[in-house]
């Protein structure tokens, strides 16, 4: 039994049937401690409704007026991976404390995003074990206005404040839908651009539009790193800023991988010094206590020293990396350096 189903039973004491849609529900006039008791309560990103009985993940609009609630449970105790039994989605006007509609037409509604005007999108992961996901756009009445099926698991989604543009990022899959950042124009029902994500999996998305509502840029936001932009045609505009942020602001794993990428893409002496400094910082920030990451950090140090012509230091770094992980990938380079240093 899924956790949401258990919590529903505690709240309700019984299971409720799922309908395709319910009419708007207005708050009652019951008083609690001198104040009108709210029908919809949001706490710690969870939405609870009294009428209809509902408990699920809450997704709020930027202006906090609208809430989309998603419950991945079939109503009889099954949540998560399954072959049948739809979940539930509700749209709530939180300011008016009014349920606009309830839908039971989604198999497994796992994520949602809602605009400042109320139209929203839902990620439906579907039944079965196939790599797949559907992103559907709905209006205030619960009518579907756009749907896109992906032959890949959808990692996350985002929606513009105006509700016109959506961002969808997928995980790896053995087809054209895998490892994709796609921006959709929901009003026109088409793809604006679809590219491999230059920054990996983002945490959030934002959209810049002009006075006429046309898309200017799409921002991908990474916790601790910042916001980085794609043009309206899908060109990544902040490659240097993203690289600098990974080197300077990332956690130790991010710093190690960014230093390694820096040496691969542009093996200059300046970049070697920058990679060396970054690897040293990563070790000091905790990588030294994680053997797998520590071995890669020392490999980066060795490659940087070798590029700078500091061969004894490079060999020492490679040997340290091999002592932590014999399969780190520098055995042949270490052997070659030993021979070169003996010949000197």
Mean of all residue-level pLDDT scores: 91
Largest sheet: 6 strands, antiparallel
Q: What share of the residues does DSSP label as strand, in percent?
A: 25-35%
Number of domains: 2
Computed Rg: 26 Å
Overall 3D geometry? elongated
Intertermini distance: 70 Å
Written account of the structure:
This protein has helices at residues 3-12, 239-249, 252-265, 269-284, 291-307, 311-324, 331-343; strands at 31-32, 35-36, 40-43, 46-49, 54-60, 66-71, 88-93, 98-103, 109-114, 120-124, 133-138, 144-150, 154-159, 165-170, 181-185, 190-195, 204-209, 215-222, 226-231. With 344 residues, it is an alpha+beta fold. The strands form five sheets. It has a six-stranded antiparallel β-sheet. Helix 2 crosses helix 3, helix 3 packs antiparallel against helix 4 (269-284) and helix 5 (291-307) packs antiparallel against helix 6 (311-324). It is elongated, with a radius of gyration of 26 Å. It starts with a helix and ends with a helix.
């Amino acid at each position: 039994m899924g956790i949401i189903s258990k919590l529903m039973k505690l709240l309700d004491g019984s299971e409720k049937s799922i309908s395709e849609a319910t009419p708007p529900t207005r708050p009652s006039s019951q008083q609690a401690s001198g104040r009108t008791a709210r029908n919809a309560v949001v706490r710690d990103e969870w939405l609870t409704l009294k009428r209809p009985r509902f408990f699920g993940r809450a997704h709020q609009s930027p202006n906090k007026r609208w809430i989309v609630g998603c419950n991945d449970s079939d109503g009889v105790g099954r949540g998560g991976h399954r072959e049948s039994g739809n979940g539930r989605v509700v749209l709530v006007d939180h300011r008016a404390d009014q349920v606009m509609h309830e839908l039971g037409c989604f198999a497994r509604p796992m994520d949602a995003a809602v605009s400042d005007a109320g139209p929203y999108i839902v990620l439906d992961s579907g039944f079965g074990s196939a790599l797949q996901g559907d992103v559907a756009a709905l209006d205030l009445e619960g009518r579907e206005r756009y749907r896109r099926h992906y032959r890949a698991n959808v990692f996350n989604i985002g929606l513009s404040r105006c509700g016109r543009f959506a961002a969808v990022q997928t995980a790896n899959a053995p087809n054209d839908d895998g490892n994709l950042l796609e921006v959709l124009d929901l009003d026109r029902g088409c793809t604006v651009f679809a590219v491999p994500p230059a920054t990996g999996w983002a945490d959030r998305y934002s959209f810049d539009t002009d006075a006429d509502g046309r898309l200017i840029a799409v921002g991908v936001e990474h916790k601790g790193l910042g916001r980085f932009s794609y043009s309206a045609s899908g060109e990544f505009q902040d490659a240097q800023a993203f690289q600098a942020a990974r080197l300077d602001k990332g956690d130790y794993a991010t710093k190690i991988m960014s230093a390694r990428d820096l040496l691969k893409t542009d093996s200059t002496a300046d970049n070697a010094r920058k990679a060396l400094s970054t690897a040293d910082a990563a070790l000091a920030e905790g990588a030294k206590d994680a053997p797998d990451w520590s071995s890669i950090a020392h490999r980066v140090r060795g490659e940087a020293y070798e590029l700078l012509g500091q061969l004894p230091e490079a060999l020492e770094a490679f040997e340290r990396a091999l002592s932590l992980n014999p399969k780190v990938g520098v055995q042949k380079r270490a052997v070659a350096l030993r021979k070169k240093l003996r010949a000197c």
